[in-house]
Design goal:
The chain is an alpha+beta fold. It is built from 6 helices and 7 strands. It has a domain of 131 residues: Beta Polymerase, domain 2 (2-Layer Sandwich). Helix 1 crosses helix 3, helix 2 packs parallel to helix 5 and helix 4 packs antiparallel against helix 5.
Length: 194
Amino acid sequence: MVEARTISLDRMVSAVEKVRKRLLKACDALERAGIPYGVAGGNAVAAWVSTVDEAAVRNTRDVDVMVRRHDLDSVREALEDVGFIYRHVGRLDVFLETPDGSIRDAVHLIFAGEFVKEGEAESNPGLEAIVNTGEFRVLDLASLVQIKLTAFRDKDRMHLRDMIDVGLIDKTWLDRVPGLLSDRLREILDNPEG
C-alpha cells in the first residue's frame, strides 16, 4: 500500500487554484496576442454547468484550449512569453509551467477543424462559435457537445452526463448532432447512470 501524505483541505484547494491560474494565464496571453481560441475540455464543461448549478461543477486537472493549426507558431510565442514551456509529446502539443512539469498539469492544445484520431466520426468544430465569459473565451455548447460525443472516452461520457444532469442537454439534442454522435447521445440519455 502506498503511504498517503497528510490529507489537507488546503492541498485540495491549491490543486484547483493552480488549474484556474494556469487557465487564466494562458488565455490572457492568447488574448493579448490577438489569437483566436476557445477553452475546451473539463474547464469548458465546468463553465457551462456553472451557468445552471454551481454545486454540480466537477474539477479538472488540466487546461484544454482549441486553436487553429496555422496559429501554432503564434500560440507558442505568446505562451512562451509568459513562461510556459512547449513540448510535443506523442501526438500532443502541450505547454508546461516548469521544465520537469507533468503533462497532467499542462495546457493542452486541440486543433480546430481537425480529426484527433483517424477514423473518428467527426472532426473538431471550428472557432466560429465562441462565447466570451469576460475572463476567457469558451467553446459554445454545441461545439463542446460535438467534441465530447466524438471523443467519447469515460471522462467525456461523464462530462456529457454532467451537462444532462443540469438540463443543458436533453432529447432535443438528438436531432442537433449527426448520425453516430446522435446514437452515442441516445445511449447516454437512455442510461444516464452508465
